[in-house]
Design goal:
By secondary structure, the protein is α/β, with parallel strands linked by helices. The chain folds into two domains: about 160 residues, Alpha-Beta Barrel (TIM Barrel); about 120 residues, Lyase, Ornithine Decarboxylase, Chain A, domain 1 (Beta Barrel), CATH 2.40.37. The protein contains ten helices and 18 strands. Helix 9 links the parallel strand 10 and strand 11. It is elongated, with a radius of gyration of 22 Å. The relative contact order is 0.15. The mean pLDDT is about 95.
Length: about 375
């Protein structure tokens, strides 16, 4: 919660649920990453929040951008980034999208299999590719599946194939899981990356870069280590596994860059019980999973929730959204304690929602319009 956001909500009071993002917080977060990891390039994960004002700020600060689509590439270019500051970081791309990116001057592409390498070789000849490997996401509140990446031993063949097809086998990437609380989580993946570097060097292919991915957390209900703690652990792991030959490194913060910069203002639509003797109230908000809170799935991300009655007595409540879909329940397994005095029509503030909210908001599901956003 920042004074600027409070002042905006008190002054503007938009109707309906909305996200408010404070750019001063984003600026501070970027500078913290740049200071903690001075030899590492920051590639902001555009998918976390692609607001034009936010992208323009980061571009002006010197950030590069990790993009998942041609549309995101165009957003980064419009914000002032040059093509050499953009990575097409999605391992699942249509060949015509690779061609479109190449036409825009993009020279850096993610792959995780030989078929993807072949697309890049045909549509973006001579460019650089990095291979994403699978790694253990233990310790992450939003673990990633096996959808992206390949086993480390397979990455050797993928990068050799890229080399044979005239691409520059440039490096290795991985992702330790979003909202990663373990500062040591990068160690095992860096050990695997170093092994790939060594094997390919023996075969005459010199890799140059390790993409450390995202995973840097924002504060929700639990305290988190500072970015300096992550930087220290990563630096130690790089030295441990690469010795004096430290490769070029990049990071792709998304949540850690913008999560704590945003707050969603929502409203209580209904408070009810399921029977007369039930001790647990159901509190229905005018935003739910389909309005931008998709990361409450399996109650993985537990956002801080504030009301104007927080000093009053509290009891456990189930939180749910407004749509006619039974999956639109935010927190039921572990109810939230909310004030007994909370009433229909009261405003509720959901903190830490600057990342992965507007981009997860459905287009008019049940007729509810997408989450409105304000950047201040």
């Amino acid at each position: 919660m920042t004074a600027r956001i409070i002042d905006f909500l008190n002054t503007r009071r938009p109707d309906g649920p909305c996200l408010v993002v404070d750019l001063d917080v984003v600026r501070d977060n970027y500078l913290a990453f740049a200071h903690a990891l001075p030899d590492t390039r920051v590639f902001y994960a555009v998918k976390a929040n692609p607001a034009p004002e936010l992208l323009s700020l980061l571009a002006s600060l010197g950030s590069s951008f990790d993009c998942a689509s041609v549309a995101e590439i165009d957003m980064a270019l419009a914000a002032g980034a040059t093509p050499d500051r953009i990575s097409f970081g999605n391992t699942i791309k249509k060949e015509r999208d690779v061609a479109a990116a190449f036409a825009r001057g993009i020279d850096l592409y993610a792959v995780d299999c030989e078929a993807e390498v072949e697309k890049v070789a045909r549509a973006a000849p001579g460019t650089r590719v990095f291979c994403r490997i699978l790694c253990d996401g233990a310790g992450a509140e939003w673990p990633l599946s096996r959808k992206f990446g390949c086993e480390p031993q397979m990455a050797v063949g993928v990068l050799e194939h890229a080399h044979r097809l005239g691409l520059r086998a440039y490096g290795v990437s991985f992702h330790v899981g979003s909202q990663q609380a373990n500062t040591e989580a990068w160690d095992g993946a860096l050990a695997s990356a170093a092994g790939i570097f060594g094997t390919l060097a023996e075969r005459g292919i010199q890799l140059a870069m390790v993409n450390l991915g995202g995973g840097f957390p924002t504060r929700y209900l639990k305290e988190i280590p500072g970015v300096d703690n992550y930087a220290s652990s990563i630096d130690a792991a790089l030295k441990r596994h690469f010795g004096n030959r430290i490769p070029e490194t990049i990071i792709e913060p998304g949540r850690g860059m913008v999560g704590n910069a945003g707050i969603i203002k929502t409203e209580v639509v209904l408070i009810s019980k399921k029977n007369d003797t039930d001790d647990i109230r159901w509190v229905y908000l005018d935003i739910g999973k389909f309005g931008g809170l998709a990361e409450t799935m399996d109650e993985s991300i537990r956002y801080p929730i504030r009301t104007m009655h927080d000093n009053d007595e509290k009891t456990p409540c189930v939180l749910a959204g407004p749509t006619c879909d039974s999956a639109d329940v935010l927190y039921e397994k572990t109810p939230y304690h909310l004030p007994v005095s909370l009433s229909i029509g009261d405003e509720v503030l959901i903190e830490g929602t600057g990342a992965y909210t507007t981009t997860y908001s459905a287009v008019a599901f049940n007729g509810f319009k997408p989450l409105e956003a304000f950047v201040i």
